[in-house]
């Protein structure tokens, strides 16, 4: 790894702060342009809860993606790699535990916020309201299931159980909420529900995996030569899955029609706030595919030979674009 790469000269907290700042700015922009018009005759949700909920969802998504990436990283190391690079594996487990706790906390907060919004109780909503929301409303049941899955994930990582079981819990927690969202309410739920589940799993493996590879082994040439080729295979499949499922989901999300007429779809893309968000996601996917392809074609052979490469800068660009795209997707997942 090239220790003189510009991205490595910048302190990690600064880089993380920039990524967080840009993604939050993108989330705020997406919320503002898609906010519903006020209807005075209807008792609407308080602005605090209405605009705080997407931020809680964004933190939930980020924690879930990082949790998935942490166990993927341990799987990519393999048993021999975990023994050889035991310090790296230990750091991956610490990250997995920390984001597992954050995932549980953020999902519980989202659960409370959504229950408060739907009940109309606002900040005064009691715990019993959360229970009623989980029992009576599908989205509440999904959030409760996510909390259970995230808790199980954290416990399994703490107990150093085989990484396959934490991965299973992470993927269940990832798909629970999207599977009960807008994709399940179309006329072709048989197609859109599996598509959104595959979309979320692929994004999480791709983004989370790259984040952990960059943070943990970017400067360790030997470990990088082991992990990156394996991750590249996963990333290639993930990019293809994200692209295909994204196309399948775009039409029903914007037009409520699984096979919209091209002119109707074009109008929805160019003339509606939701369409602008979809275009933003497409632009992000294009940038990510280009940088990922460059890494695979030009840098990966050098990594296999344990030569110095400027991977950190490209990985930082990818993670930034990924974070912004996830922020846009979080706003797009709201009822619009």
UniProtKB/TrEMBL annotation:
Give the transmembrane ranges.
54-80, 92-113, 133-157, 164-183, 189-218, 230-254, 274-296, 308-333
**Domain (Copper resistance protein D) ranges:** 227-332
- Report the InterPro entries cross-referenced here: CopC/D, Cu-R_CopD_dom
Task: Classify the main location.
Answer: membrane
The UniProt keyword set, sorted, is:
Cell membrane, Membrane, Transmembrane, Transmembrane helix
Superkingdom of origin: Bacteria
Q: How does it sit in the membrane?
A: Multi-pass membrane protein
Subcellular localization(s) per the UniProt record: Cell membrane
> Mind telling me what this protein is named?
Putative copper resistance protein D
Q: Which organism is the protein's source?
A: Kribbella antiqua
């Amino acid at each position: 790894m090239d220790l003189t790469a510009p991205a490595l000269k910048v302190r990690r907290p600064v880089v993380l702060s920039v990524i967080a700042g840009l993604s939050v700015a993108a989330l705020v922009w997406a919320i503002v342009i898609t906010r519903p018009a006020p209807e005075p005759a209807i008792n609407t949700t308080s602005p605090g809860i209405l605009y705080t909920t997407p931020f809680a969802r964004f933190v939930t998504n980020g924690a879930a993606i990082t949790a998935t990436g942490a166990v993927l990283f341990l799987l990519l190391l393999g048993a021999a790699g975990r023994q050889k690079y035991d310090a790296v594996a230990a750091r991956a487990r610490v990250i997995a535990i920390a984001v597992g706790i954050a995932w549980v906390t953020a999902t519980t907060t989202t659960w409370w916020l959504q229950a408060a919004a739907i009940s109309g109780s606002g900040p005064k909503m009691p715990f019993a309201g959360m229970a009623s929301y989980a029992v009576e409303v599908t989205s509440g049941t999904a959030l409760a299931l996510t909390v259970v899955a995230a808790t199980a994930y954290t416990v399994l990582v703490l107990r150093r159980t085989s990484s396959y079981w934490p991965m299973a819990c992470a993927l269940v927690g990832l798909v629970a909420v999207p599977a009960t969202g807008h994709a399940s309410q179309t006329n072709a739920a048989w197609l859109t529900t599996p598509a959104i589940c595959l979309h979320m799993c692929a994004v999480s493996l791709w983004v989370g995996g790259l984040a952990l590879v960059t943070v943990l082994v970017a400067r360790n040439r030997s470990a990088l030569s082991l992990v990156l080729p394996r991750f590249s295979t996963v990333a290639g499949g993930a990019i293809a899955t994200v692209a295909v499922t994204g196309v399948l989901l775009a039409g029903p999300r914007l037009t409520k029609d699984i096979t919209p007429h091209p002119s109707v779809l074009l109008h929805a893309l160019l003339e509606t706030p939701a369409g602008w968000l979809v275009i933003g996601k497409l632009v992000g996917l294009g940038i990510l595919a280009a940088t990922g392809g460059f890494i695979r074609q030009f840098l990966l052979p050098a990594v296999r030979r344990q030569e110095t490469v400027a991977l950190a800068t490209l990985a930082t660009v990818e993670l930034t674009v990924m974070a912004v795209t996830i922020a846009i997707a979080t706003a797009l997942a709201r009822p619009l």
